[in-house]
Design goal:
Layout (H helix, E strand, L loop, with lengths): L2 E3 L3 E3 L6 E6 L6 H17 L7 H24 L10 H14 L4 E8 L3 E8 L7 H11 L14 H21 L11 E4 L3 H17 L12 E3 L6
Antiparallel strand pairs: 1-2, 3-5, 3-6, 4-5, 4-7
Length: about 230
């Protein structure tokens, strides 16, 4: 299986590149989250069919992106919740941990760290997880999760990479903030990137996010963005 659903749908085929968004806990009020989720489910019901067709996949992709943009607009408004990632000490932990995983667990293509959320474009290095002992270690770690956070009958490399990343950065950030408790929202948004054109569009979207949110005038002015320079953007 490459698809599962908790609160958000997750389609994670091996060997693909993904656009991922993780956010701080409490940055979208539950009543707003549930309203947008209800609207998403209604749209999905309209295209439901036992037969998977190319047209249905395209419609699903469009609905998913529109659904994501609604959440993104709330995050960019910075109205709700904490903005711990605006603290440069925290942003550095989040960025350094991504770079540490680059070429070990992931190919890191781009990221932007916003005050309350992070966009990442990455490709899991599947070969890194081919070692049986490493896979078994991740499986053991995943057993500690609640049913809400993990489907125990399946194993998803991207989900485990993100879970370990969030666990480490949350622990280190909480130490700096002298606090305990939930740091990241449990579930992340992930979207499989279909082709090179979409990859380029998404990386541009990631880099432009601070501009769109009114934090800087030019993408290059934002300290906490990155992309691999071989991309001609």
């Amino acid at each position: 299986m490459t698809y599962y659903k908790r609160n958000l749908p997750h389609y994670q085929p091996e060997g693909h590149t993904f656009f991922v968004t993780i956010r701080l806990a409490g940055t979208i009020p539950e009543y707003i989250y549930q309203r947008i989720k209800y609207e998403f489910d209604k749209e999905i019901d309209k295209i439901s069919s036992p037969k998977v067709t190319k047209k249905r996949r395209e419609l699903y992709h469009e609905i998913q992106m529109n659904h994501f943009i609604k959440y993104e607009q709330i995050l960019d408004s910075n109205v709700y919740g904490r903005k711990w990632l605006a603290d440069e000490r925290i942003a550095k932990i989040v960025a350094d941990s991504l770079h540490y995983r680059d070429e070990k667990e992931i190919e890191l293509l781009s990221y932007t760290i916003m005050p309350n959320h992070v966009h990442i474009v990455l490709k899991p290095i599947v070969e890194r997880f081919a070692d049986a002992s490493h896979v078994e270690s991740l499986r053991r770690n995943s057993k500690n999760r609640s049913d809400e956070e993990h489907n125990h009958d399946s194993f998803y490399i991207l989900t485990d990479i993100l879970q370990n990343y969030k666990k480490y950065t949350a622990r280190m950030s909480n130490l700096i903030l002298n606090r305990t408790g939930q740091f990241w929202q449990h579930e992340s948004y992930d979207h499989v990137i279909r082709d090179q054109d979409e990859l380029n569009r998404i990386i541009n979207y990631v880099l432009q996010n601070p501009v769109k949110a009114g934090l800087v005038e030019n993408p290059e002015d934002w300290k906490w963005s990155y992309y691999k320079r071989e991309f001609d953007l």
